[in-house]
Write a structure and sequence with these properties.
Elements: H1 5-45, H2 51-77, E1 82-85, H3 87-91, H4 104-108, H5 113-124, E2 128-132, H6 138-148, E3 157-159, H7 177-189, E4 203-207, H8 210-218, E5 222-225, H9 233-239
Parallel strand pairs: 1-2, 1-4, 2-3, 4-5
Helix pairs in contact: 2-5, 2-9
Amino acid sequence: MRLSRTNKLLVIIVSSFAAAVLLVQISIIKRLPTENSDSSSEIYNMPLTGSHNGWAEEQRSKTMEKKCSAAVDKLVDSGINFLAIDFDQTMIDVHTGGRWKGTALELTEHMRPVFLHLVPAATNRNIRIAICTFSGQTKHIRDVMEYVFPNIADLIVIRGNDKTWEYHGNGFKRGKQEHMASAAEELLAEQALGVTDVTKATTLLIDDDPKNIRMSLKDRTRAIWFNPKEPNELLDNILLLK
């Protein structure tokens, strides 16, 4: 049957419309996998949380424990039985200036991980710890020790500028020297602390202030400068002790 000219035109129009609809459908279908693919990619590229973060944190903790164990071995081999550790910018990552406005619990959030591992490891090897600071907020510092080291806080001596102690010995009194000397006297006086002999030769100061380090070395007491920007370098420096 022959189509009239009008019918032919109608067929062409209908065919063109159908083709256009088909192209639109194909275009939509092509975009769908791309959108799904992007969505899937976003899921896989999201930061891993939960159990993965817990695993990573556990691995970091184990690595730190191993390094601290090696550092403590070196301390023992070097004859160190007394660690005098500065507080502001050393044991914690802020400088309170002796004017901390928050709670002691809030201050615990600033404890450096290296000391959270090193202090218990050293204590377990009968190396005694003293916090030697120019801060007068020793009550806050004591509370921080109770929070972070509940099992050994009683063994940690604190010497700060709180006017609760005096050093009457003949030793060098500049820098942190009198703080360390007074702390050593308490350690020797308290038999329960298990220390029978503390001398300059068995003492190590860890401090971020170069002046205190220089004074300690001048007084023939070993000392390690603590770099606040690279806190874990402390363990490497301990391994270099002679």
